[in-house]
UniProtKB/TrEMBL annotation:
A Pfam family this chain is assigned to: Transp_cyt_pur
Listed InterPro entries: Pur-cyt_permease, Pur-cyt_permease_Fcy2/21/22
Organism, as annotated: Saccharopolyspora erythraea (strain ATCC 11635 / DSM 40517 / JCM 4748 / NBRC 13426 / NCIMB 8594 / NRRL 2338)
Protein name: Transmembrane transport protein
Keywords tagged on the record: Membrane, Transmembrane, Transmembrane helix, Transport
Record region (Disordered): 1-33
Location(s), subcellular: Membrane
Length: 494
């Protein structure tokens, strides 16, 4: 699509100078792709400096692990997940649109709705988690400092305010999110350094829960922590990375720089806050809850920094997630503009926040959520990456937009818009992943075959890769006859 083309459905048509991002899931013209690799590092680092990410560092402690096994499980899971997820940033770097739309090159222009739904669910859950934990970091310090209510009324008001601020940031879009992430990253790194000092006198490496390991023995519990606390971090980005790499021009930067920036941003952006969460969980002896003991154990002088992170860290991270939700819903329902889709998904996320506080058990809900979505998200990521390799990174940007224009045809039309081979492989991989997952709310029957160790991620990835490669034998990946912005798909208006 050229800059002179009519604005398609799903594109915000606000003037460039208004400050509100004008792009939805359309193909961004190269003239607007002004991002840099360091912007990717900044947004991955800054957007994760919040309690919604820090709390994952508490999960190993809540599982009954001691400090050092908690640390090793998170590092192992984060590095393993990054190896799979980071290459996904290269897909949108080549296509100029978000990842779920880009996956249409492999799944078909309608089959890519699988990625849109997964992305929407992932962002929806993580956004709710971010506001939920951030709200506790606001209400707790305000209660200790000024005696404000710390019950249902206080949380209800705080959640509402944080949700409204998050959606406003998300509406403005890419540029504001990028700028804000850099400031949040700098400020929160200082806060965490101060936090190490604040809690160091109370730190102990011994387990914080009574009754031993959650799953009965060390290795199965360590494996659960590797998946739930470590691997789940990178997996949360399987549909988000393209939201920012699409703004970097392949005419000015190489794929190697984008990949390196993504790896650096993910590893630092996840491990720094999560390891801080582990340290403070053991220092505050947080067993059944994290934020409450964290606030209670904080010195008075640290309450204000904690409050500031509760506000700015929350709206920064939640803003990123709400922004991504808006793009995914925009991709699912093209007649919606990005702004309208963002407001709607923000309302859904806020409902989940209140349910998380008033209805659900926090630890069980969070753990089950990340494991189940990892089980169905991993196969999608594997197939998308195999498709990227098979087409050697060459896509037809115009053909990827067929569904958004409510058209038909193009090289990614496959069978009525679906690549049935990819869809079947995804279903097989997801089924194996779900059947081998182990949570407090659901235990898959295959867990007995893996000696009680949750290998859902590895089994889902391996099953998907084998199934898709076998199903695709003799079926080449569609490739444009010409590459570059001049490539046009042969689509027929419905």
């Amino acid at each position: 699509m050229t800059p002179e083309s009519p604005t398609p459905t799903g594109v915000d048509s606000a003037p460039r100078g208004s400050g509100i991002e004008k792009h939805g899931v359309d193909t961004i013209p190269d003239s607007d792709r002004t991002g840099r690799p360091r912007d990717i590092v900044g947004i991955l680092l800054g957007s994760n400096m919040c309690l919604g990410v820090v709390i994952f560092g508490w999960l190993p402690a809540s599982f009954g692990l001691e400090f050092w096994p908690s640390v090793t499980s998170m590092i192992a899971g984060t590095l393993l997940g990054t190896l799979l997820v980071a290459p996904l940033s290269l897909v949108s770097f080549r296509t100029g649109t978000n990842l779920s739309t880009s996956s249409g090159g492999t799944f078909g222009v309608r089959g890519r709705l699988i990625g849109s739904v997964i992305g929407l669910l992932l962002s929806l859950g993580y956004a709710a988690l971010t506001v939920w934990t951030g709200g506790a970091a606001v209400v707790g310090p305000l209660h200790r400092l000024f005696g404000l209510p710390d019950g249902g009324v206080g949380y209800t008001v705080t959640y509402g305010v944080l949700s409204v601020l998050s959606v406003l940031i998300a509406i403005y879009g890419y540029r504001l999110l990028t700028t804000m992430s850099k400031w949040v990253a700098a400020g929160t790194l200082v806060l965490m350094a101060a936090g190490v000092l604040a809690y160091s006198g109370q730190f102990s490496t011994g387990p914080v829960v009574e009754g031993g390991y959650l799953l009965g023995d060390f290795w199965t519990t360590w494996a659960l922590s590797t998946v739930a606390a470590g691997l789940s971090g990178p997996m949360a980005f399987i549909t988000l990375l393209g939201d920012y790499s699409r703004y970097v021009s392949p005419k000015r930067y190489s794929s190697g720089k984008i990949f390196a920036a993504t790896v650096a941003g993910m590893v630092m952006g996840l491990l720094i806050p999560q390891l801080f969460g582990t340290f403070t969980a053991f220092a505050s002896r947080a067993a059944d809850d994290y934020v409450g003991p964290l606030v209670a154990a904080a010195p008075v002088w640290f309450l204000l920094p904690l409050l500031l992170n509760g506000v700015f860290g929350t709206i920064g991270n939640a803003g990123i997630l709400v922004y991504s939700m808006g793009l995914d819903l925009d991709a699912i329902v093209p007649p919606l503009s990005r702004v309208k889709a963002t407001v709607l998904t923000s309302a859904l996320s806020t409902v989940l926040v209140y349910l998380g506080y008033f209805v659900w058990d926090a630890q069980d809900a969070v753990t089950a959520f990340v494991l189940l979505l990892t089980a169905i998200g991993t196969p999608w990521a594997v197939i998308t990456l195999i498709g990227f390799v098979r087409c050697r990174g060459h896509y037809d940007p115009d053909a990827l937009q067929v569904y958004n224009r409510r058209s038909r045809g193009g090289i990614y039309w496959y069978t009525a818009g679906w690549n049935l081979r990819a869809a079947v492989a995804w279903m097989l991989g997801s089924a194996v992943g779900l059947l081998s997952v182990d949570t407090a709310l659901f235990k898959g029957p295959l867990i007995e075959w893996t000696y009680g160790i949750d290998l859902s991620f590895l089994l889902a990835a391996a099953t998907t890769a084998v199934a898709y490669l076998l199903l695709s034998l003799g079926s080449p990946q569609p490739m444009p006859t010409r590459t570059g912005p001049e490539t046009q798909a042969q689509a027929v208006r419905a």
